Prior knowledge:
Helix content is 45%, strand content 16%. By secondary structure, the chain is of the alpha/beta class. It has one domain (5-254): Alpha-Beta Barrel (TIM Barrel), CATH 3.20.20.70. Strands 1-2-3-4-5-6-7-8 form an 8-stranded parallel β-barrel, surrounded by 5 helices. The chain is globular and about 45 Å long.
Amino acid sequence: MRIPLIAGNWKMNKTASEAAAFARELVQRNMTSPAIEIVVAPPFTALDSVRHTLGTGSSIGLAGQNLHWEDRGAYTGEISAPMLKDLGCRYVIIGHSERRALFGEGDDVIQKKLAAAFRHGLKPILCVGESLGQREAGHTTEIITGQLKGSLAGFEASQLALLTIAYEPVWAIGTGKAASPEQAIPVHRTIRQFLQQQWSGSLSQTTRILYGGSVTPQNVSSFLASEEIDGALVGGACLQVESFASIADLAQKRTGH
Ligand code: PGA
């Protein structure tokens, strides 16, 4: 049984004080439920204030949006896995399409970042997705399996037990044009098959595969109605408490709790 995960990727939004005010509202909404897992990924500068506002023992988890593959050293401007762990992060987003497109991250770098996360027991949320041109040319499966091969090669199933994958079609991110469940579900199946073929049936059954790309309170239930889709990685709609809480509520309803 895979527990649905609703993760909010704040991207480069909210100062530390805005983030604390937001987290206070989240606490007031009492959004927690044993039936789903909720995670927020504030900017690095707001992790500490969000952590303190949520309080120790909060069931809302914290994620970093990125990390460097080394633990420490002369890497100006970078943040390492031990630094994220020390601030209470349980998760880290890796390979987001904005990192790939705007900061030149390729699968080799993403693989090193995954290794750093595994080394420190951080749970990576690995993002994969095709561009519109690639989808229109009929290359979606090839692109997704290529990204998975390139970034996951060489890891043991025991390491991958920490992994969550987010299928995020690049053309759906921040555009208001979500994929339809009919478009997303076959890709989720491809990802699961890949895990089964390369590692094991049990890994493919336990790994959560989220959908991301213009998820809103209006469309989240249509994704979560599918057994293939184990939650959502939410960008724009996670920046208001109201819409993020609605998405979490709807995810909880799907589980019957
Ligand atoms: P979006 O972003 O929900 O604003 O499309 C999703 C993401 O980038 O993870």
